[in-house]
């Protein structure tokens, strides 16, 4: 939550954590992907010492937020798997700034429309 940070504590290392409400596991996976070009969910699960379903939930969250790529790979004899990679940092920065600007605009509108009774309901 935003109130957990002071202005002095908000920096390039934790702003993504703040904006996207990342867990320790989410951050660990992002770091892992920043150090590797592409990894499968099973490789990631092994590296972060979690079961595959736990790692997969975090990967899906990071994918939904647009922080990572997810690419389907077909197995020659049938089946498929996904490979994950970190999106370029400049894209993440650009989209995060757009998200913050939109949130700021919506927050301003909500505050301007706020009535006294809204604080106590």
Beta-strand proportion: 5-15%
Sheet with most strands: strand arrangement: 1-3-2
Please give the share of residues in helix: 40-55%
Shape: elongated
Q: In whole angstroms, how far apart are the ends?
A: 21 Å
If you had to describe this structure to a student in words, what would you say it looks like?
The chain folds into 2 domains: 2-87, Orthogonal Bundle (Arc Repressor Mutant, subunit A); 88-121. It has 5 helices and 3 strands. The chain has helices spanning 15-20, 24-35, 41-48, 52-64, 89-112, and strands at residues 39-40, 68-74, 80-86. A 3-stranded antiparallel β-sheet has the order 1-3-2. The chain is elongated and about 65 Å long. The two termini are 21 Å apart.
Attribute tags:
13% strand, alpha+beta, single chain, 2 domains, three-stranded antiparallel β-sheet, 121 residues, Arc Repressor Mutant, subunit A
